[in-house]
């Protein structure tokens, strides 16, 4: 009789590896403007609103998004996968995304909050929710309260991290004097 514990651990490792590939494959597909590969990363039940669901919805949605800037480079800099079970998981993906937008070169420091699902033995994105740490020109330090400096798109990116994390508030509540020494921004 095979070791059930070993089989479960191997299945978990295989799930982690497959899910990690989703983030890297997403970055590659977006940057190469490969809508066929990009659409194939999303589950049939992923809803893209007016664009539809699943692969076709993803392709239609990203066709519009990616036409909004010329070049992009997505660098995956960390991936944490949690709550893995047989057919679902959650994760966070840290990313540095760079975009050529007209005469501007814009950097987005962001975190994707992902939900994953396994359908027919294959892992897909069920949903992705990006949250931003900084959006702007990398040659200048962020000095505005919202850390968003993408000309003409300031209203599209709410830079809410890390301040919206509960642990952030708890930490700085315990160190109010130190916080005041290291920043003039709230």
Automatic annotation (TrEMBL):
Occurrences of domain SnoaL-like (ranges): 12-128
InterPro entries, sorted: NTF2-like_dom_sf, SnoaL-like
Residues forming coiled coils: none
Stated name of the protein: SnoaL-like domain-containing protein
Source species: Sphingopyxis panaciterrulae
